Amino acid sequence: MNQTSSLLDEIEGTIQGHRDGHGFVQRDDGESDIYLPPNEMRAVLHKDRVKVRVVRHDRKGRPEGRVVEIVERPPQPIIGRLLHESGIWLVAPEDKRYGQDVLIPKSATGTAKAGQVVVVELTEPPALFGAPVGRVKEVLGEIDDAGMEIEIAVRKYGVPHEFSDGCIALSRTLPDKVRPQDKKGRVDLIDIPLVTIDGEDARDFDDAVYCEPAKVGRGKGWRLLVAIADVSSYVETGSAIDIDAYDRATSVYFPRRVIPMLPEKLSNGLCSLNPDVERLCMVCDMLVTAEGDVHAYQFFPAVMFSHARFTYNEVAAILANTRGPEAARRKERVPDLLNLHDVFGALVKARTRRGAIDFETTETQIICDENGRIEKIVPRTRNDAHKLIEEAMLAANVCSADFILQSKHPGLYRVHEGPTPEKKDILRNYLKATGVGLSISDDPKPGEFQAIAAATKDRPDALQIHSMLLRSMQQAIYSPHNSGHFGLAFEAYTHFTSPIRRYPDLLVHRVIKAILVGQRYQLPVLPLPGEAHEKLARRLAGRVKAPGQALKKPGPPPTKELLAWEAAGLHCSANERRADEASRDVEAWLKCKYMREHLGEEYGGVVTSATTFGIFVTLDAMYVEGLVHITELGGEYFKFDEARQELRGERTGIRYAIGSRVRVQVSRVDLDGRKIDFRLIRDDEEVVARAMKDKGAAVGRGADSGGPPGKSGGRRTASKDDAPQERTPRSPIQGLKAAVKKAVSKKSRKPRR
Predict the structure, then answer these.
(1) Which of 76, 448, 728, 746 is 20 to 30 Å from 716 by CA-CA measure?
(2) Structure pTM?
């Protein structure tokens, strides 16, 4: 960045508040965020659009700004608890990124009572010397009400959770089943034994599959049919249902509740590929070779009839034992499942040959009771049935991307790019520091990452290495610029297989249908609240690079059509992140409430992240993550080693890195901050002794093996995005404790200052 020019320029962006009072401006041009100190945050709010001027840079070259203009203050309800303190009514925002309490005049409290969770509408914005003022717009209820965490999350993150009157009215006019006129121009697949394979708790079924042996060229292979619900036949472009679906962009999944992208009549009824009923679908018909390559494919609209609804566990049991009770109940479908398993094996061979990245990670599922309380947290196990469906969907998605690309029609690709230069350097340094013996090139291929993962899978620090490989990659986005999918090692990839729950898939269906009849699909400018197409397009117009491309001289301005597709990609990507954040927020709330019942209990765990301010530990038995603050690690200096991604004690040499096993005690739970604090437990000083022996130092009973007792309840909880600190000296209590121990053990060495 040119620092001289930056000091003169006014830069536009969006405020991102921080719970500690400072904030950042996320720049529209994609450059580094600009830091705003607490005094600059007094007159602005989280999510405000502003113009800032860079006033200085810190010693690492990071910019600090001053707000010169508030460009836009979007209407944003604030959720929090209504408090009555010293005769003053106020709402403390649940989202701590809003750094100020909102004053509520007594006449504006409505029916709300002190302590209740409410939604506030601002009537006066904040000022340098004045807090914001608002009125109670909605009363959500008591903080401990069942489902309150979801009610808060959907409002906190702006997730649309009520369909418009027009959408509901239009959905009521739709038929209850496939009519004879709906089948016109479609291939009849009713006699083809397509089946669905999903989880036990699935309610909407996007996809159905069928496979049979076939001759491909001169060799053997398979014919694989992937049938996907034809949502586009019922959701017309620009209709009330379409507007609501675009606004949501995706279904949002919470424990015990789903906020669907489409009304229930479509998502669980007319568009869901339920068993034993006719359904409209779009089909990707593929010929797959014995080596797992798609030799040929075609798309066509069809009408189908699901011959069975399988669960993953049921299919896995049948594949494991074709003579077992599960297979006996599904005798007619067993040969088809075996064919699917055979084509799956071929597709996996192709994945390996491509060098696609395939890390085994542990996903968890929260099991709740009827009142919404967590009963247990269990790992989700991926069996061959999961992988079978995954490979079939990947194949259909690749064919969809190729079809759009070859037709030279604009559309949305699912783009996943390789690591940035900065992340490549961090990863290389880490691999070198840990003695892996392998590294990545300047222009790395996915196979290089997979080779490192395979070579290190049996090492004790395999978890740490695989975590670093994952962290070096970027997030996937939707874009009309095809830059390929790095992780899956595909030159072109898109989303075709879930139009019930993802709007990009619905757009892909419309584009494919248009291409099939020789037309061009026109993406409309939908009249959405908040960020509409035009606004997004204006923000994109200043960009002179496509995703993954280096800056270059401005060329011809993008067409209106391309800008519309870019805006749609940005909108869908942003709302995908919004859904993920809302889901994580609810899970964090539930886990905090769960762990409040386990305060003081001890558990074994593994370090999942090391930072400048402590280590994050995930418990073995509960799959819950919490922070062991650096002040709880013992009475010495701990320094963060960026190359090795670990904390190391300078005196003892104790190291805490990803994958390190520790024993912790649950010491504090902050429900508002969604944070759990642990205290490190050492049953003896074996760890200290071993570390100091490695350093060649004599070891006595004087090594301080624990943090200050009883201190965690009153200190501030740190989070992953807290401001970094290079090192933390021991507290006076820790120093005194260590000095007493040394005196008792008659050590002559002077205490460290």
Answers:
(1) 76
(2) 0.83
